[in-house]
Design a protein that fits this description.
mainly beta, 33 strands, globular, 3 helices, 4% helix, four-stranded antiparallel beta sheet
Length: 417
């Protein structure tokens, strides 16, 4: 056994092109390649499941069936399951996050005749199918007309899949948001209105921002917006439980008055990740993870990171320079991955990522390829720019070449680097 005392899993069974086979895992010493064979459907895409492992998707190359196959391998390099499900479309959209053990495959990102159809699974691989009919859900709680609202985001939180709808009320010159919660466990739905007044003028002047999802933990979902209270700039945190009940709010003062407005985007696949037409702009971005609040702010001197339980330990990313051409502004996406803070910036000419540990040490920063953004964020930990899928299994780097979608059950190889 190696000195580090870890064993690695590898699939031993070679592919039979005539009869699809189920993979079996054996214990091998770490450092060997990982070989995965499709069960029924040729592989066509890999997606990182943040802090969980890697998902590999398969489907019928000829399009004779809509059936999809999903393979999950965890962070230890262990094949956990291969399952099939039947969507109604050829390319369902996965919705996942760093907060949830559940993943959804949506047939629609915008309701079709008021409905969205989904397949849900979790770390066990058990798949459940369902749908949500939004108009009657709206009528149970709110007077805001469903037909006038736009679905702007879908996020997988700790306990719920949350749909965020927005009404742009031009008559009263205000925005109103409605949240629909689909509980992961019961698949029951709940609805809530976002409290507060969000006027057009205040938003346009930067005095307020629109509301966005900032994180969750068990039985608490956090939606935040930038505002002012008692002549102090800060963030209003709106707290909802897993049944959509508004349980209170908290105000965090912005620790620096020089934070500039920047657009935000989602790093991992969510509704706003796919829908590029609904940007959120605010003076900094607030992020909740592991019972801590982090503020990532863009200043003239670069990027700053504040951890609210210790504001004196703020981090200046002074060497983080974003190249721009026509506009000095850039958008930011933030998350936590493998117990590190991840910040990705997009300008008019480049996409760049930086990884910071919570002691303030910058681990990596380099230009990244947009083609992998969202599918392979762990690639930021590697000081390289390539189109391979790179992942840390058992703290060792493995890489898979880009998939070639073809009409045969070609094995996928994660090669030890």
């Amino acid at each position: 056994m190696p000195n580090f005392g870890q064993l690695f899993y590898k699939t031993m069974k070679k592919q039979n092109f005539l009869t699809p086979i189920i993979l079996f895992c054996s214990f091998l010493t770490i450092g060997q390649d990982i070989i995965l064979t499709p069960k029924k459907m040729p592989y066509y895409e890999l997606i990182e499941w943040p802090n969980k492992g890697v998902l590999i998707f398969g489907k019928d190359h000829r399009g004779n069936t809509l059936q999809q196959e999903v393979t999950f391998i965890n962070e230890a390099g262990e094949l956990k399951w291969q399952e099939q499900y039947m969507p109604q479309v050829t390319s369902p959209k996965p919705i996942l996050s760093e907060y949830s053990n559940y993943i959804y495959f949506l047939d629609q990102l915008q309701p079709d005749d008021g409905k969205i159809y989904y397949n849900q699974t979790n770390l066990s691989g058990y798949i459940r199918k369902g749908s949500i009919n939004f108009p009657p859900i709206f009528r149970t709680v709110t007077n805001i007309p469903y037909s006038s609202c736009e679905l702007i985001d879908i996020v997988s939180a700790t306990d719920d899949l949350i749909f965020q709808f927005r009404l742009k009320d031009r008559k009263n010159k205000v925005y109103q948001d409605v949240l629909v919660f689909l509980n992961h466990y019961s698949l029951k739905t709940f609805v809530a209105e976002i409290p507060g007044v969000f006027g057009f003028d205040a938003i346009e002047k930067g005095e307020k921002s629109l509301v966005y999802f900032a994180g969750s933990k068990e039985n608490e979902n956090y939606f935040v917006h930038h505002t002012r209270k008692d002549n102090k700039a800060g963030f209003d945190i709106l707290i909802f439980d897993k049944k959509g009940v508004f349980t209170g709010s908290r105000f965090l003062v912005t620790p620096d008055s020089e934070i500039l407005i920047s657009e935000r985007f989602s790093i991992f696949p969510s509704g706003s990740f796919y829908n590029k037409g609904n940007p959120h702009s605010a003076k900094g971005q607030l992020l909740f993870f592991n019972d801590d609040w982090f503020l990532i702010g863009r200043k003239a001197s670069g990027l700053w990171v504040w951890k609210y339980d210790d504001l004196k330990a703020s981090i200046l990313l002074k060497d983080y320079i974003v190249q721009t051409k026509k506009s000095p502004e850039y958008a930011m996406g933030v998350s936590v991955l493998k117990d590190h803070l991840v910040v990705v910036t997009k300008s008019d000419i480049e996409t760049k990522g930086v990884i910071v540990d919570f002691a303030g040490k910058i681990i990596q920063q380099h230009v990244v390829d947009d083609k992998l953004l969202g599918n392979n964020i762990s690639n930021l930990f590697k000081n390289s720019v390539d189109l391979n899928f790179n992942y840390l299994f058992n703290q060792l780097w493995y890489t898979a070449s880009p998939l070639v979608f073809e009409d045969k059950l070609t094995p996928l190889v994660f090669e030890k680097k």
